[in-house]
Amino acid sequence: MDPQLTEVSQMFERFKAAFIRKDFDSCANLLSQLKVLLTKFRSLPPLFENTPNAVNELLLAREIYEHAVVLSVKIEDQDAFERDFFQLKPYYTDAGSRLPPSQQEYLILGLNLLRLLVQNRIAEFHTELELLSATALENPCIKHAVELEQSFMEGAYNRVLSARQNAPHETYVYFMDLLAKTVRDEIAGCSEKAYDYLSINDARQMLLFSSDQELLEYIKEEHPDWEVKNGSVYFQKAKDSAPCKEIPSLQLINQTLSYARELERIV
Amino acid sequence: MTQDVEMKEQPAPSNSVPSSSPSTLHHLKEIASLIETGAYDREARRILRAIRLTMALRRKLKASVLSVFLSFALTPGSEAFTRLSSYLPKEDENEMEVDTATSTAQPPAKHSLPELEIYCYLLVLIFLIDQKKYDEAKACSSASISRLKNLNRRTLDVLAARLYFYYSLCYELTGTLSEIRSNLLALHRIATLRHDELGQETLLNLLLRNYLHYNLYDQAEKLRSKAPRFEAHSNQQFCRYLFYLGKIRTIQLEYTDAKECLLQAARKAPVAALGFRVQCNKWAIIVRLLLGEIPERTVFMQKGMEKALRPYFELTNAVRIGDLELFRSVAEKFSTTFSSDRTHNLIVRLRHNVIRTGLRNISISYSRIALADVGKKLRLDSVADAESIVAKAIRDGAIDATLDHSNGCMLSKETGDIYSTTEPQTAFNSRIAFCLNMHNEAVRALRFPPNSHKEKESAEKRRERQQQEQELAKHIAEEDDDEF
Fold it and tell me: Can you tell which superkingdom this protein's organism belongs to (chain A) (predicted)?
């Protein structure tokens, strides 16, 4: 066996041991060393040279990056997630035909979809979705993310929240918690427009707070324009600032002038 | 397949060759002389016409005619000649004799222009594709592309663009499109360096097609946004570009842009390109549905498209009524069509629009309705779902209403008079802008034959003018020399 490959796999074993111990600091440390070592393999993307050990090296590298993605979720670092995911992606797309399929693949792709949803990058979410085959869409991990997006777009927020209980994998919980925060902001935004007022009790339930105190603090911080009186929350103030009707004179002048200019050109 | 073709060709020599072959050959020779004059005069327009004439001959091409034409156009024994001849299937003996007899009677071609050589490549390639000999076509196209890379003549651009197109087509037909991606990128780079705008246009479209074939929307958009843009040279290429752009925009949820692109592509496409227009219409229908518009019935009744658009018609109907159950059954019934059209994911997105339309209908008909009833009408699972969905619809401006949580009902507001808003004005403005734009484009598309306004000048005056021009040219040349 190639000495370089042995070195990397030994270090990866140490990384895995630390990963199981949940010693994430030493994990991160080992990971950065591993990444440096991986750059020495010429069979890996972007070079993709067909060296004799290519398949073994690709497999090892893929596993390392898969662990890196999961690790980034554990240490709750979204930027690291994005970086590691993009490094991992070529192993699924471009090297996919040469390697046996990974069991982690759909789990990680689902995680990525969820991340895009949490960060409200819906366009990228759909771009990623187009890359998945029909069988991939049937996978519970992917399906979970797709259904979440649908409920989210429809506005069926309690379906989004109840999905937390049947998350397909423990790593999903982190993003689901983040999603809950996004959902709360969405609900607040919708309520503001849809209701004239809500009793404090209803508002607390709707915005998923466990105590009135938390609700009042949230209102103070995020929506200072809401008014709390007589045991109800009034959204009226926000609505008063409806745009008053005004003749759009500048726009009208511009349009008329452009018609005149164009007509001049024709006649 | 090849056998089938040969079977058909066997009985042909006895009666059809003497009648059709000379005329086809005659046409081909005319085209060749057209290309020659085009090459000498540096007029790409003539070569374009040559290609158009070739397309008319396409169905009549035969291996025998081609081999005669090759020996006419190319120097026998040259590299291109031997290579191209090897792609043509061998005919039976006596026919070959007839051909060689006619070809030896021709004066041997004294020169071989690169334009003519490339044209021969193109001709053989088209023939091979029509005969469904895709492996030979692949080999032939790759050979032509590597030859093209070494030639740098502006008169070749038109022919080269065509070759690129068929090159990609061969690989697409054999399902190996991903192999040529880096090659196409290299060609695009070369075309950019040579200021070959038509080539750039064609290659950009081929690359977009290549990416979209594998659903690589991200890469396609990145390339598209960074590639240089200029006034379109070819209407067909522009249509394709619009279609691909429309697809990308749809996936990225920019529906307004997408709709504009797709509708324009469908309108600009030539009448003969039925398949292309059907595709454009399919996507345009979905995008309009996603925008909350309902396409008119006439869209589905266009000539030759009724059958292909049928699934989309039923889908539109389901969205128009706002019935989730009907929508689901239509989506299931035509799921194979939708997945082969690769619109399945878009249709999943539509569910949300079905609910919105249903909700809008309810809000128009009722001034006050219990949320439980809303849920029942829209076939939603729970009242809580209904409430949050209605709340979101209100926030997004889909309906104008308020919710009363304590009584659990929805109160619709009076719909205002639309003519008191600026809505009619903007609609009117967009129509005027469309008409004016159409006029301007029509003016820009007008072509004037060169020097037509000077026709009336007498022969004497012309001689005088030419002399002046020559003197001027000499002056300029001298000045140029001075500068160095």
Answer: Eukaryota
